[in-house]
Amino acid sequence: MAHRFLDFFSSIKLTIVCLMAAIILVFAGTLAQVHYGIHEVQARYFQSLFVWWPADSTGIQLPVFPGGHLLGGVLLANLIAAHFRRFRWTWRKLGIQLTHFGLIIMLAGGLFTDLFAIESFMRLSSGETKNYSEDSRRMELAIIDQSGSELDTVTAIPESMLKSGGAINHESLPFKLLIRHFYPNTELRMLDGKTNLSPAATQGVGSRVAALPLPLATAPNSRDVPAAVVEIVPRQGDRSLGTWLVSELLGAPQTFDAAGKTWKLTMRPARYYKPYSLTLEKFSHDRYVGTEIAKNFSSKVKLNDLDRSENRNVLIYMNHPLRYRGDTFYQAGFEKNDEATVLQVVHNPTFVAPYLACVIVGAGLLIQFAFQFSGFLRRRESASSSL
Description:
Strand content: 35-45%
Shape: globular
Structural class: alpha+beta
Radius of gyration: 28 Å
Number of domains: 3
Number of strands: 18
Largest sheet: 6 strands, antiparallel
Mean pLDDT: 89
Number of helices: 7
């Protein structure tokens, strides 16, 4: 049984089938970008085990095609099985073995990068200090308790939980949240009495605005603006505090009283907190003389890490990122009038994998070439001596 299982996973037929399926998946995903946008297509086609039909997740779904993660995993297993099944462990095959081992590392590194890498952004104004970055595509509902004398207590509820609906009970909150509505993409419109629109909620700003659902954003530089209507119900007693509209478009947090405390409620980009902080000392935007074309832009930041007694200045500019504690900070952009810098933050636990794979593949090719070249020289020398 084990022998047949190994034969199946080391088969060249399985390799061809997976490669053909990958071509079909890329073609279908490219066409789907017209309707869903690049980020949604990545999640549905390439960052999943299966492509599900229909795309709307509100009803019963059926897997209709293998997704990118499944195809990549099968190809990785196929390469490993073929490597141990077919290649003989001899010195003359060392180059081929190293080359295949490097390809295995490259495939595994790509898969783990897709699974565990996190991309976010940090926006800094001059003199501003932050110890967190923000996700540009994921939101969270933040409930803030400001009763502490020094620090606020923040309970962050991810967008995925809001999308699932139902009730949210968190041990840090003296109340529960009932998700009444969730809008993947919305437009907010003030009520002026001239339309038949209904208020989105009964309390706060939501009692004066209407939430209009919009189609999912598909343009490359656009993104969805989700919103939700939540009902706040204290644990002690059944009296509801009404429904509240939460959306990034509302701007300032809304406040309410519960359990003898004042709380703040806001929808914001998901945050990733760091054990260190960055302070923007100076942002420079150099242009070519007589034009508005950017020549260079850079950020001089101060890195402060109390745990490691780290306090130093770092210059971040194009192709010269800051790497610290598993995070890489790239100079990604800036805001109008050069008022703030935008740093892209990448946390990738397997960032070494492609470099290591390239070194191993290169060494394997050189060794294999050396063996072949030495054999060619020996055959040429024996042919010359026989004349």
